[in-house]
Structures are given as structure tokens and as C-alpha cells.
Write a structure and sequence with these properties.
- The chain is an alpha+beta fold and 129 residues long.
- Helix content is 24%, strand content 40%.
- The protein has 3 helices and 6 strands, in the order H-H-E-E-E-H-E-E-E.
- About 7% of the residues have low confidence.
Amino acid sequence: MFRRCILMMIIGAVLLAATAWGHHSFAAEFDAKKTVSIAGVITKLDWINPHAYIYLDMKDANGVLVHWAFQTIPPMMMRARGINRDMFPVGQTVTISGFGAKDGTQSLGWIKKIQYADGRVLQVTAEEQ
């Protein structure tokens, strides 16, 4: 019985370590000095862990359609802040402000806030991110 208990503890520790190792910090992927503000139409929402994603289509200066992916905090943290998935309907025109990818990926960002066409602003993550 004692060996089984020790074995279960070791397996649990390995599984927890693997999960923690796979997670990354904001600073590992995004540049807090590289601000972005993208106006476009929500095309998809991935309300998943460990981070929710909002996908946005916008047209660049040449009229070319660009697909953006914006990462944010986990759905559980969003719900704790009173934010739910119904606030991001596909087809909704919004402006997302946040930070660009550190590796220079042109269409990947981290959401700080979202402004809706009617002027409402939804602060998703802290200003000092």
C-alpha cells in the first residue's frame, strides 16, 4: 500500500511538472513595448485553456485581408472579471488594443482592451501588463 501511494505521488508530480513546463509567460511571447491597435471583424473565438483566442480580419493599407489572432487570459479568469464568450460574437466590428508578438509575427497579439463599434470599452487585462 505504501509503495502504491509513493508511486501515485510521483506520477502526480510528473504530470503537474509537465503542465507547468508547457506554460509560458506574457514576456516570453509578447513585447510590452510593441503596442498594436487593430480594427476589424471578429471571425472566430476559441474559448479554451490555457488562453482564449479571438480571431480578427482586417484590411491593411493596400486593401489586403489580414487574419489576426489575439491571445488573452484563460476563460476562468475572464469569467471572474464578468467577461463571457457571448461578448465576442462572430461578425462584430471591434478595435483590439494590445501588444505584438516578440518574435516579429505580424498577425499575433495579446489583448489589453476591446472597443466596440458603439463606443463601449472592455478592459480585458491590466493596463500595466
